[in-house]
Design goal:
Layout (H helix, E strand, L loop, with lengths): L2 H12 L1 H16 L6 E3 L6 H5 L4 E4 L8 E2 L12 E7 L8 H11 E12 L6 H7 L29 H6 L3 H7 L3 E9 L3 H5 L10 H22 L2 E8 L1
Parallel strand pairs: 1-2, 1-4, 2-3, 4-5
Antiparallel strand pairs: 5-7, 6-7
Helix pairs in contact: 2-9
Amino acid sequence: MNVPLDRYGSAWNRKPLLRRVYNEMYERIAAVCVDGATLEIGGGIGQFKARFPNVIATDIQTAPWLDIVADAQRLPLAHGSIANIVMVDVLHHVEFPILFLEEASRVLRQGGRLIMIEPAITWGSSLFYRVLHHEPVRMSADPLAVGEPNARRDPYDSNQAIPTLLMSRDRRRLEQRLPSLRLSRIDWFALWVYPLSGGFKPWSLLSDRAGCALLALEKKLEPAIGRLLGFRLMAVMEKR
């Protein structure tokens, strides 16, 4: 296992609130999956596969629990062979997101779904992501840019703005570029627990018990204020 994955795995095992936050996101994903084969992009430390063992887990890095090691921009799968593609915190790391989205459209069957949970750059989250998070936020980027993927690129290179740009400012351009994928749902959520938990950092400002209570409150409030204050978005795209 490489050093970043080892560090993330240690945090996962040590922090019950972190597991609670991510398991809640996994349940959101599972709730909108359709029947059939499910492919996970960015299997990471294997926590999604541990919860849903039948998933086909992939990552650009190697790990014992992965089923396939592959670049998301070049998936070694047949056309129309997958019912669901699921991913958490992956799209904003992909070098050329449009290349991945084209691959997702290719391997999904008709009616299949691409389900992504990613950072959301909102009025409430922007300062945190720009100042306190180690990954950059570049709102001027073109998320539809195309080039030749660099095999030597650091897989942790990122731009946290990419998912928000694709689902808001550049949504119409995406629809015109890739009409085979239709954005059928977008949820803006995660208000306080996620940043206060410290994520995969060694610290947390909340106990697991307090975080559990706050998560329940967040769920009640997110339909009203998630778009304004949310730290996360969940996008569901369907293959036409």
